[in-house]
Every structure is written in C-alpha cells, then in structure tokens.
Design a protein that fits this description.
Blueprint (H helix, E strand, L loop, with lengths): L9 H9 L14 H9 L2 H15 L3 H31 L8 E5 L2 E5 L9 E4 L9 E2 L5 E5 L1 H4 L5 E3 L4 E2 L4 E10 L8 H10 L7 H30 L4 H13 L4 H18 L3 E3 L4 H7 L2 E4 L6 E12 L5 H13 L6 H9 L7 E5 L7 E6 L2 E6 L1 H4 L9 H9 L3 E8 L19 E12 L3 H10 L3 E5 L4 H10 L8 E2 L8 H10 L2 E3 L3 H13 L4 E5 L5 H6 L2 E5 L4 H6 L2 E3 L7 H38 L8 H4 L1 H16 L9 H36 L6 H11 L9 H29 L17 H16 L3 H6 L7 H23 L2 H6 L6
Parallel strand pairs: 10-17, 10-20, 17-19, 18-19, 20-21, 21-22
Antiparallel strand pairs: 1-2, 1-3, 3-8, 4-7, 5-6, 5-8, 9-22, 11-16, 12-13, 13-14, 14-15, 15-16
Helix pairs in contact: 2-4, 3-4, 3-8, 4-9, 7-8, 7-21, 9-21, 9-23, 10-21, 11-12, 17-18, 21-23, 21-24, 21-26, 23-26, 23-27, 24-26, 24-29, 25-26, 26-27, 26-29
Amino acid sequence: MLAPADGLTGAEADARRRRGEANTAVQGGSRSYAEILRTNVFSFFNLILFAIGAALLILGRYSDALISVGLGLINAVISAAQEIRAKRKLDRLQLLEKTNVLVVRDGREAEVAPALVVRGDVLRVRPGDQIVVDGPLLDGGRLEADESLLTGESDPVVKHPGDDLRSGSVCVAGDGHQLARDVGARSYAGRLTAEARRDSTDRTPLQRSIDFIVRLVMALTVLMSSAILGQAFLEGFTLLRVVQITAVLSGLVPYGLFFLIALAYTAGAVRIARHGALVQQVNAVESVSNVDVVCTDKTGTLTTGRLTVDAIVPLGAYEYAEVAAALGSVAHHVSTPNLTALALAAALPGEPWEVHDEVPFSSSLRWSGLATEQGVWVLGAPDVLGPRLLRDPPAAEISERTGQGLRVLLLAHTPGRDARLRDPSGRPDLPMLEPVGLVALADELRDEVVRTVVRLRDEGVRVKVLSGDDPRTVAAIAVRAGLDAATAVPGADLDDLDDPALDRLVARTAVFGRVAPEHKERIVASLRRQGHYVAMIGDGVNDARALKQAQVGVAMRSGSAVTRDVADIVLVDDSFAALPPAQHEGRRIINGIAISLYVFLARVASQGLVILAVTMLGLNFPYSPTQVGLTMFTVGLPTVFLTFWAQPTRPDPHLLRNLVRFVVPAAVVTATFGTAIYTALYEMLVRGLTSGRRTPAEVIDDFEQYTGLQYGVDADFTTASATILAQTGLSTFFCFASFMLILFLAPRSRFFAAWTKPTGDRRPSILVLALTVTFCAVVCVPALWDYFGLVGPSRPVFTIVLPALVLWYATLTVVFRLRLFDRLLGLRPPR
C-alpha cells in the first residue's frame, strides 16, 4: 500500500524541471519544413528542369522556359503544401487538455498548468478532472476513472489505492491523491500522442505505379538524351539548340500525371464530401476505392452510444403494466440520469413520486435506488442484488438474455415509508428486497448499419468489429448488424500468439472483444500482411494507433480530436453509410486517372520513338519546347474530363500489364505515321527550295518571318524552314491522333470499340469534336501558331496529314481488334 505524501517543495520541483523531468507536451514527430521543401521542390527531376529553365532564360527563350519549368514547379508547390498542411495538423495534436491541475507543493495545494507538473509530484484528483500523468493512487483515495478515451470500454473503472491512474482518463467519481511517476513523453498519453504524430501516410497502388512509370521513362529519356546530345555536339549545334533539345527530352517525362492526380483527388474529395465524408488526406480518395476489409469499433460506429429497451419480464405476481410503470417512474426521478435511465425514460411513462433519498448509480455499487412514499425502489445488476433478495430471480432467463449480448437489470422493491437506502453512518446499504421484474437493454444500432453491411458485402468488402466491450455483447451487436459472428475472440487470447498464428486467427474471425489499442493495431497489421487493403473506423483515442496502421483511417466527427486529426477521412454525419458512396466515387476517379494514363503514355512513347527515328534519319530535331507544351492541350485537358466521366467499376488489377498492351502498339503505329509525315514534309520543302525552280515570293516571305532568317543570305534558311513545316505537320497529326485515341479508350459505339467494349456515353465523342474544332482555331490564329512555333494554315500539311490520319486509324483498329501485339509476344488477355 502507498502512504499519502506531502508532495515536493518548490525548490525540488524546480530542480527536477531543470533536469528534464517535467510533464512537457510532446513535440515534433513529423518531418521538418526544410525536409518537406527539399524533397518536393528540389527533387532530382525538378533540379534538371530548373537548370534547363535558367539556361533558356539566359538565352532569352522566355516562353520555352515557362513551358519547361512551370509544370514541375506547380507539382512541387502542390505536394509541399499538402505535406505542410498535414504536418501542422499533426504538430498541434495533443491528447491532454490544458486545464490547470492541483498539486501538493510545500505541504499546500497549488493550482498549476499540466506542463509544470514534475516527476514525484503529488496531485489532487477530483470528479471531472482529467488525469495528466501516470502513477498510482495513494492511500486514503478511492475513485472511478472513465478510460473509454483510451480503451474503448464504456463502463468506469474503480481504482483502489495502489492502482495505476493513466493519463488521458477522467475521474468521474470519488477523490484521492496520485503520485506522478511517468510524465511527458514517458506517460501513456505522451506515448499515444507521439505515435499519433508519426508520419505514416501510405502511397497508394496507383501512386506507386505512376512513380514506377515516371522513373522508367526518366531512365529511358536519359539514355536517349545522351545519344542525341552526343550527336548534337558532334554536328556542332549551337548552345541554344542544345538547351532546347534538352528541354524537349525532359518534357517527355509525363510529369503532368502528378498534377492530374492532384486535381482528380481534389475533385473526388469534393464529390465524396457530398455524401458525408470529409477527405483530409487527398490520396484517401484512391485508397478508399481499394478497400476490401473494414475494421470498425462498436460504440459510436455500429451503435449510437444509446440504449433501447429490448424486453421487460415481470416476476412473481407482478403484471407487465405494473413493472413498466415502476421502471418509468424510477427513470424519470433520477437526478443524474445515465444511459440506462435515459433509455427507460424515453420508452416508458412515469408517475409522479415524492423522493426522500437517492443513491445514484456508480460502477463500484452497480445499483441505484430511490426512497419514496411507496417504499424503496432499487435497479441494479442481478448478481449484486442477489444476496438481499427475498427470493431468487430466474437464473436461466438472465443467462439467456445476457448470452444474447443484452444488458439485464433487476428491479426490486421494499414497501413502506420507513424503508432506507443507507446505514446509520450514511453509507449506501441495501434493505431486503422483493424482485419485481427484469429489464433487458440493447445497444441501439444506427439506422443505416444493416444496409451498409449488406452493401459492403455485395462489393466484396469484409467487415470486422474490434471493440473494448464484452465479447458476448460485441458478438450480439455484430449479429444484429448482419455480420457472421458465431464467436467473438477476447483480446487476451491474442497476447501469446506469434504473427503466423495471429494471421490464421484474424483470417477466420469477424468479432474481437475486450481489445486494447495494441490489439487493434496488431489485427490491422495482420490483415495487411495477408495482402488486404484495410480501412479502420473509430472514434476514440484508443483507435488512433489502428487508424494510422490501416491504409485508410476513418474517424467519426463526434469522436476525439486526436482521432479526427490522424484520420484520412472524417464521417461528418457520424454515418457508417457514407463509406460505400465514398468508395463508389473513389473508384470513378481512379478509373478516370487510369484512362488518362493510357493517353499520356501513348503520347509520350510516340514522341520518344519519333525523336529516335528522325535523329537516325539525320533530319533536324522534330520538336521545340513550346510544341511539347501542346501536350497539356491535347492530353492534359481531355484527361480531366475523362476522369470525371469514368465509370465506378472496380480498379483494374492488371493496370500495368494492360498499359503495355495498349501503349506499345499505339506508340509504334503512331510513331511510324508521324515519322513518315515529318520526313515527307521536310524533304518536300527542302527539294522545293533547292531544286532551282522558282518558289512563290509569298512562301519565301512567310518562312523568313517564321524562321527569322533570309532566303539566299542565311545558309540555314532551307533546313530551318523545312524543320518548322515538318514540325507543324507532325504536331498537327499528333494532336488529332491523341484526340482519336480517346475514342478507342471510351468508345460510344462498336465502330470505335477495337480496344474495349462500348460505353454508350456520348460525352467523350463530343469532347473529341470540341477539341478538334479548338485546335483548328489555334492553327488559324497568328498569335497562337506563332507561340507554339508552328506555321499558319498550310495546304501541304493538311494534304498529307488528313489521309495519314485515316490510314492510321484503320491500321490501329486492325492491330487492336486482332490483338496482333498480344499474339506477337504470346500474351493472353487478363480475365
């Protein structure tokens, strides 16, 4: 036993504070601002872009510099802003309140801030106080602590001298002194806070796939750049030309995908919010679409936290109406109603009574009583009231209903105005009682729970319940919610299991009761080891560690601030039903991004192959940096619309494989036609200017204006003019081909359904038409064609490009319909 202490002196407390033994709030835990900026803004790829942009600025190529640097900088700013926002939220996270506490200093009680408490202090704990340090209750004290914030168990826990009080719990009854043994980061609340602040954001499958694709393209681009720049130096290209070539080659990296994902995630978050789910971590829009296991707490998620009257069983000679009236009257006259009294008062009417005395319910007594003119009425646990009953209650009835997860209470009565609830010293004491009736109370299910469980099951998502309550109660609630919960495993059974044994148990079990935060975390980790994509739903601090362990952490708005801060998604209406619609919208966004991947990569691969082919043919470089910027118009803009119009089907599990099956043949066919167009236009103009035949003066004037060179004066006039004409034809063909690729990926009818099945959606076709008209307008406006380094409307360009487009479409249709690429490599289409 621990004797009361006089506490520390002020000098001792100051000395311990200087030694670092104060209850200082946990600091840090997440990445620093400098590290966030360094990894996002000054990444390897961004440094390359910045160097190219600086060189172009020095050379006076301002528009080229903007195209080269702008997109990478936008991506970096978006990514850094998101991480900084998350860091600020985590850094503000604190489990403990800042309300002053009472400590014993120099033999007197003094009010101090929690941060000024030191190890060895003696604290006075009163009802309503939050425990701010860990340590034992000293002799002379006895209190009840609400630990639901930490453990999820709703009933207060009686603490006797020598028992530990944990920081983060709340004293709800009693009084005593506590010795501060563990403070600051060493306390339970400190450890939970540090764990909650840990940066544990998972990269989603799509993010990992895109990161792999971008890195692969970067590696191939570096190899290609080395060969092309080596040739440029051997041929004596100018510094400006070398920088421009470098800018074009770096532009092949589909860095715009990151920007597209950020935009799609943001739009998805807005749409998901309409269903009652607030997205706090943007990639949760995708993560929720991949979830195949949902782990959830019971109280506050499956249930409302309220009780309902399930049954009333009269005993002896009492009638149902008599028992119901008495229960209602007891509930209506309780001065501080608990959940039981609220449930009874809501379901049953009450008669007016004159109350002489009251013993309120407490977890140590496990009964409450009223002394009235009609006598004493007591409502409590049957096993506690049993020794004071005149006859035994029906044990079989009680056992059966308790086994169903119901809370069974016994109403008992002693007639007469002289009946008392206390002994002569004033302490609560039961008289001899007559059993009146039993009342069975059930946790109230949320209205939408059963429908939501069915909907999740239909989507192939399994639901597991992890609760701190009694396993029998949890199992009963799970059955009512529609889960297959024949048995519930208590958390204590997990303590001695190694990981393989735990995995086997978790795989076959749907309900766990009496689980601690550590158990929840282990269960989620086990599911992840088994390859599942896990969402964890919770509302208390005891759920925070499991939320961070899961791929998707989901918190209730009415839950603790700590849980909301660490969650990826917050259910603003406390509705479990918001999860399936969020998953539905998430799948729509992810499928849209997947379609965008096809368009992006087909364009990038085609451009890379054209550059290689043209270089091997010894012709001038086929692109300028501003022409590569057309990708944002031909690919970036349409993919935004495609993302919003996608169908909410399951994400493609074979995305990378199908990307290869589409992109490779599309790139080869497109690059073949593109190279032919470029070569034809280039050679046509070179021969026209060097054949000796007279060239129309207006043509000469136009190309002198385009190139800034003079015919017959500058030796490079012919090749520069041929290059800009060929680049115009190539860019025109690529733009139209990119538009038509959309029709292959989202065909309205069977005419374009060479790659996939018809969708019946007219919007992609209308988009293609609108983009085609817009591009035609671009090449007809002098300021626009000049900005993109193109020539104006040219008969040779359209004479060659339009027939080539028809042949290109026919060729690609045959390749896709006959699966020629698959047959060439012996691939089987995934089922």
